[in-house]
């Protein structure tokens, strides 16, 4: 069962204020959630303090004060640095907390994160997002989720603020795996388009 604050809503923590993370935080705060924020560049987090958010000095401190912790960082190494270690999220979580990772990382990293959280009585889902800044600003991301289905259903009201469509893909790591499949398909599509344009230009030059 997900823990909640005094008002019956979960207290959210958010880690990672990149281009996507900043806009996710804005949407969550606009939806009425109280957030505690961590970014390794503290100045980014301080900007949200003016709007009522708390700023944590360490991921561990953030986890200690929140019910649901969301992360959106650049890669596997960045995720491992904020999750593990003496100052990481797992050092501060409590049984009943929920972790939502929105980063694009490898399925292997997602599964190792899931297993480490499970040992502490903490649920975790990988919720890889497809879309960019305009989509997150409008709440129109597509989200691929891996992990326990019951945890996904608990987290869906939060995910629905960020995305217009959420697909439950199966066990831990399947959300990130599907995101990588989508990225591959998009890459192949762009390559095919580039080749088609080049062929068209060559054909036109032969005509003239």
Number of helical stretches of at least 4 residues: 8
Note poorly predicted spans.
none
- Major beta-sheet overview: 8 strands, mixed
CATH superfamily: NAD(P)-binding Rossmann-like Domain
Distance between the termini: 70 Å
Number of domains: 1
Fraction of residues in H or I helices: 40-55%
As a percent range, the share of strand residues is 15-25%
Major sheet: arrangement of strands: 3-2-1-4-5-6-7-8
Whole-number mean pLDDT = 89
CATH architecture: 3-Layer(aba) Sandwich
Which CATH first-tier class would you pick? Answer: Alpha Beta
Using the CA coordinates, give the radius of gyration: 19 Å
> Per the principal axes of the C-alpha atoms, what is the gross shape?
globular
Could you give the count of β-strands? 8
The helix-strand sequence is EHEHEHEHEHEHEHEH
Q: Which class do the helix and strand fractions yield?
A: alpha/beta
CATH topology heading: Rossmann fold
In short:
With 208 residues, the protein is an alpha/beta fold.
Structure description:
This protein is α/β, with parallel strands linked by helices. The chain has one domain (about 10-205): 3-Layer(aba) Sandwich (Rossmann fold), CATH 3.40.50. Helix content is about 50%, strand content about 20%. It has 8 helices and 8 strands. It has helices at about 20-30, 40-50, 60-65, 75-85, 105-120, 135, 150-160, 175-205, and strands spanning about 10-15, 35-40, 55, 70, 100, 125-130, 140-145, 165-170. The protein has an 8-stranded mixed sheet with strand order 3-2-1-4-5-6-7-8, with helices on both faces. Helix 5 (about 105-120) links the parallel strand 5 and strand 6 (about 125-130). The chain starts with 11 loop residues before the first strand and ends with a helix. The mean pLDDT is about 90.
């Amino acid at each position: 069962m997900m823990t909640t604050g005094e008002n019956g809503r979960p207290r959210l923590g958010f880690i990672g204020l990149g281009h996507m993370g900043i806009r996710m935080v804005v949407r969550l705060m606009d939806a009425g959630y109280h957030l505690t924020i961590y970014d390794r560049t503290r100045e980014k987090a301080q900007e949200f303090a003016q709007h009522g958010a708390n700023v944590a000095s360490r991921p561990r401190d953030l986890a200690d004060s929140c019910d649901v912790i969301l992360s959106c960082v650049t890669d596997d190494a960045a995720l491992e640095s904020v999750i593990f270690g003496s100052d990481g999220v797992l050092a501060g979580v409590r049984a009943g907390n929920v972790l939502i990772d929105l980063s694009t990382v490898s399925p292997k990293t997602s599964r190792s994160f899931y297993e480490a959280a499970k040992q502490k009585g903490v649920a975790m889902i990988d919720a890889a997002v497809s879309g960019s800044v305009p989509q997150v600003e409008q709440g129109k991301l597509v989200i691929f989720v891996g992990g326990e289905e019951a945890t996904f259903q608990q987290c869906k009201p939060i995910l629905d603020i960020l995305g217009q469509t959420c697909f439950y893909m199966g066990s831990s790591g399947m959300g990130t795996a599907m995101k990588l499949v989508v990225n591959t398909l998009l890459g192949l599509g762009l390559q095919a388009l580039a080749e088609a344009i080049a062929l068209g230009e060559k054909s036109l030059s032969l005509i003239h």
